[in-house]
Amino acid sequence: MRTRVKICGFTRVEDALAAARLGVDAIGLVFYAQSPRNVSMARAAEITRALPAFVSVVGLFVDAEPDWVRDVLAEVNIDCLQFHGNESPEDCRLYAKPYIKAVRMRPDTDLEDIQAQYADAAGLLLDAYHPGAQGGTGSGFDWELIGGNLSLPLILAGGLSPENAALAVQQVRPYALDVSSGVEAGKGIKDAEKMAAFIRKINQST
Ligand SMILES: O=C(O)c1ccccc1N[C@@H]1O[C@H](COP(=O)(O)O)[C@@H](O)[C@H]1O
């Protein structure tokens, strides 16, 4: 099976269209005020309206108020939710949308236990643990920490780039890779050449 690609943290229509032309499976929009990639509802709606068919849109939230998530869902065409904070399974199930639960990997993280709790998730996204930041840091983690009998689709994130994408596919064999910092020219500004190189490396190694 080929490895899917999600690129996260778009703030500009032209970058999302460039990613779509390169064949990305999903784009991520960050609705988290503390992120340098936070996108306004109006801009997010503009981006999603411009996208061609068959590119999924993932809305990323961090411990958001349910009313805020509902407001975004009412205005922006989102296919899947990504919960990147300390949301409980019940929090994640409040919306009639598939969801991905992010796990910030630490040495004692028990993925089987997390999988049991979030059994109805559309995927588990594994990211680096970084004190003081919820994600999007460009930091990786030790892939040897990934273990257990895992049946949910695994989405590998954290410090990925064109330089380590092939190794990530070969070593982890994830369902998908998710990248933000590693394909940027600046925070929230994507670099078309880096996005192309990232996707090319994955396709060559799948
Ligand atoms: O992108 C952000 O700013 C962000 C903020 C808060 C939580 C998650 C965020 N992004 C997600 O973090 C991972 C790893 O990103 P990176 O490639 O290491 O920069 C990824 O899943 C992004 O979707």
UniProtKB/TrEMBL annotation:
Top EC class, one word: isomerase
Record EC number: 5.3.1.24
Catalyzed chemical reaction(s): N-(5-phospho-beta-D-ribosyl)anthranilate = 1-(2-carboxyphenylamino)-1-deoxy-D-ribulose 5-phosphate
Pfam family, one: PRAI
Molecular-function GO term, any one: phosphoribosylanthranilate isomerase activity
Cross-referenced InterPro entries: Aldolase_TIM (IPR013785), PRAI_dom (IPR001240), RibuloseP-bd_barrel (IPR011060), TrpF_fam (IPR044643)
Domain N-(5'phosphoribosyl) anthranilate isomerase (PRAI) as annotated: residue spans: 5-200
Keyword Oxidoreductase: no
Lineage: superkingdom: Bacteria
UniProt entry keywords in alphabetical sequence: Amino-acid biosynthesis, Aromatic amino acid biosynthesis, Isomerase, Tryptophan biosynthesis
Pathway connected to this protein: Amino-acid biosynthesis; L-tryptophan biosynthesis; L-tryptophan from chorismate: step 3/5
Family label: Belongs to the TrpF family.
NCBIfam families in the cross-refs: PRK01222.1-4, PRK01222.1-6
HAMAP family: PRAI (MF_00135)
Protein name per Swiss-Prot or TrEMBL: N-(5'-phosphoribosyl)anthranilate isomerase
Species annotation: Methylomonas rivi
UniProt gene name: trpF
